[in-house]
Amino acid sequence: MIRMLLLVALLALSSLEALAQSGERTLGIGLLRDRQLKQALVMSTRSASKVIADGVFMGELKSTDGLRIEIAGKEIAARSLAMAFTAKRIEVVPYGDGGFKLKPEGGKNPREYPGRLEATLANGQLLLLNSVHIEAYVAGVVSAEAGKDHHHEYYKLQAVSSRTYALTNQRKHLADGFDLCDGVHCQVYHGRNRNDSIAAAVDATRSLVIVDSEIKLIHATFHSNCGGETMNAEDLWSKHEPYLRAVRDTFCLSAPHAAWERRLSRSEWLGYLNRRFGFVATDSAQLSAALNFDPQCRGLYMQGIWPLIHLKHVREDLKLRSTFFTVSAEADHVLLRGRGFGHAVGLCQEGAMAMARSGRSYTDILHHYFANVHLVDLGTLDFFRDEGDSLRINGGAGPKPH
Ligand SMILES: [Zn+2]
Ligand SMILES: [Zn+2]
Question: Which of 37, 190, 220, 264 has its C-alpha lying 20 to 30 A from 121's C-alpha?
């Protein structure tokens, strides 16, 4: 009850202090970590930028100039039309809300980034870090991850998910000296978003993040297509999350990744079951169970067979699109007919896209795939997290830190 009251208060609160906190939040994104960077060209966009070397102002980088940086022993050498120096740490700080363009060695087109750039050396490589406001980062992620031509409500959903993911995983690269990388390991980020619909969706959901009933940021996990039914988190990862519950989903059934097929020879299939799980067809009932499997709903194992055949392992070993499939015997072959694509926990992307197209709001979609979650302002979340300590001392029901 106290938790509910707290949540209502949290949803209602809009203190200036809280909003100010969320407005200032920046993230440090490690750029191009999949390359062994030795050299890069940095350019200003529109307005000029300040260039700072080891804390000392070196000059301005005009939008008509470029700063080439490269490894020189234990330092970084930098050269433009107007300056040349070496330093351990170089910052390019644009005036106003400008940004910078970056062209790595061997790269084709430069990418444009919002915010500032910091270059240092780490393990003999250039470490390029983009210090960027969270809202500009989220817009860049939605643009790179979702692509164009989606419904506005789908972009809003992606925006709150990406924002939540960024904060849940902010410590993922602590040891590397930044918050998140720009690849699939974290969230794909190729710099500034240029899509108006995405910009409007990020703006409309500004500062909103998804929390569970304990007011903890959720792991907004997603997959391509659930095949009609999502999975409980603990059935896949052995870790229970109250908001990652199995739900039925009719929205994705005619989407591009709704169905798949794989044909194997009978001996390949039976040989695999034998080698991997020790299965031996001791009688015709066992053989029939291995060759004809037709689950009515998602399960963890093939039915009627001993030893247990874990569908998760079958999917991994045979590189199947999902664990949700039937097996049927066909002469000397078996046909696996599957539904969906991906692990099926959390949000089904193709279902969510279809829900958005059919007129559902992004909050409806969110509540369809995640149980008992709420949207709260990031600033009020920070505010209540700070208050949490005293609340816990008084009543024991404050939000838990994480
Ligand atoms: Zn990463
Ligand atoms: Zn689905």
Answer: 190
CB 182 within 8 A of CB 189: yes
Q: Looking at the CA of 231, which ligand is closest?
A: 2
- Residues 193, 235 contacting (CB under 8 angstroms): no
25 Cβ partners below 8 Å, 6+ apart? Answer: 133, 134, 378
Whole-number Å distance, alpha carbon 132 to ligand 2 midpoint, is: 34
**Domain covering 27-132 assigned CATH 2.60.40 in the classification:** no
pLDDT (tens digit, 9 = 90+) per residue, 208-249?
999 999 999 999 899 999 999 999 999 988 899 999 999 999
Between CA 29 and CA 177 the distance in angstroms is: 10
Q: How far is the CA of 217 from the centre of ligand 2 (A)?
A: 23
d(CA 156, CA 153): 5
Q: How far is the CA of 327 from the centre of ligand 1 (A)?
A: 37
pTM of the model: 0.85
Q: For ligand 1, a single-atom ion, which residues have Cβ within 5 Å? A: 181, 185-186
Domain ranges of the chain: 27-132, 135-215+372-402, 259-339
Kindly give the distance from the C-alpha atom of residue 281 to the centroid of ligand 1, in angstroms, as a whole number: 45
